[in-house]
Design goal:
By secondary structure, this protein is mainly beta. It is about 5% helix and about 40% strand. The protein has one helix at about 80; strands at about 10-15, 25-35, 40-50, 55-60, 65-70. Strands 4-3-2-1-5 form a five-stranded antiparallel beta sheet, with no helix packed on it. A hairpin with a 5-residue loop joins strand 3 (about 40-50) and strand 4 (about 55-60). The longest helix is centred in the last third of the chain and has 4 residues, at about 80. The mean pLDDT is about 90.
């Protein structure tokens, strides 16, 4: 976890564990949180596709990388562009 990313609001983040045809491979970062309890505890990030779908990914994942920011004018790749 030494190289953990620190995304900012509206950063485009690519999940290297997802296949290129997966629509959740690149998401818009919304917020970070911390789960407590017995299972799946630890920090996590919340992402969206900009169309109403949200998902969470562990913040300790080694294959997350920032690929852009919506405020800088970068666009989310369409599902047809990812393949």
């Amino acid at each position: 976890m030494a190289d953990a990313i620190k995304p900012k609001f509206l950063d485009l983040v690519e999940n290297g564990w997802a296949s290129p045809s997966n629509p959740g491979r690149v998401g818009i970062f919304i917020r970070r949180g911390v789960r407590t309890g017995r299972m799946n505890r630890g920090p996590y990030f919340v992402f969206t596709d900009g169309k109403g779908r949200f998902w969470e990914i562990s913040a300790t994942s080694e294959r997350l990388r920032i690929v852009g920011n919506l405020l800088a004018g970068d666009l989310l790749p369409e599902a047809s562009d990812v393949r």
